[in-house]
Amino acid sequence: MGIYDYKVKDRHGNIVDMADYKGKVLLIVNTATGCGFTPQYEGLEALYKKYKEKGLEILDFPCNQFGHQAPGTSEEIHEFCTLKYDISFTQFAKIEVNGENEEPLYTYLKSQKKGTLGSKIKWNFTKFLVDKEGNVIARFAPTDTPEKIDSKINEIL
User: Fold this and answer.
1) For residues 109, 115, 121 and 124, what is the CA-based torsion angle, rounded to 10 degrees?
2) Residue 113: what pLDDT?
3) For residue 49, what is the domain's CATH number?
4) Could you confirm whether 81 is annotated as catalytic?
5) How confident is the model at residue 99 (pLDDT cuts 50, 70, 90)?
6) Residue 105, domain extent
7) What pLDDT is stored for residue 147 in this prediction?
8) How many domains does the chain have?
9) Dihedrals φ, ψ of 82, to 5°?
10) Regarding beta strands 90-91 and 56-62, do their DSSP bridges make them parallel or antiparallel, or are they unpaired?
11) 3-state helix, strand, coil in the chain (%, to 5)
């Protein structure tokens, strides 16, 4: 299976086919609204505004698995992010990224690029970069800011 074979739920609970993103560069991020890395939403939005016309999509998957730092419903999380950070990229339903209830898309992403803990996601704001052909080409740690990965995104666009 490849990335385009997966289906995920948007923040309203509707099924989204990852094949809808064929031909786009994807930055897939597990996020949280009450995390020390939450201000990265600003940088993510800046990347999105800078590159969306060139084919970048940022796919935001809120995750409450790490310190319960993403409380609330998907809609409450979306309201927080749009009010505080004015985000305009796509937010999906809250998911788990590790363990028996992990989102299958994340099982796939982690199988493609390991991190410092092997395949496990270490914390919120772990980022996966996917090229236009659907290849997972990089995994970035939570400490890797959006600004730090700008050049890598530009390179594959």
Assistant:
1) -100
2) 87
3) 3.40.30.10
4) no
5) very high
6) 3-128+142-156
7) 96
8) 1
9) -75, -35
10) parallel
11) 35, 25, 40
pLDDT band at 141 (very low <50, low <70, confident <90, very high): very high
94: Cβ contacts below 8 Å, ≥ 6 apart: 61, 62, 63, 64, 70, 73, 74, 77
Q: Which amino acid belongs to residue 65?
A: Q
Of 35, 87, 130, 153, the catalytic one is 35
**35 domain-assigned:** yes
More confident residue, 29 or 35: 29
120 in a structural domain: yes
Exposed / middle / buried, residue 152 (Cβ in 10 Å: 0-12, 13-18, 19+): middle
- Which amino acid is present at 75? E
* pLDDT given at position 73: 85
Do 92 and 59 form a contact (C-beta atoms < 8 A)? yes
**Which residue's entry shows tokens 């319960």?**
68
Say if 136 falls within a structural domain. Answer: no
The answer to whether the pTM exceeds 0.85 is yes
Q: Residue 151 carries which DSSP code?
A: H
Q: Is residue 133 part of a domain?
A: no
Closest to 118 in 3D by CA, of 143, 139, 145: 139
Q: What's the pLDDT at 74?
A: 84
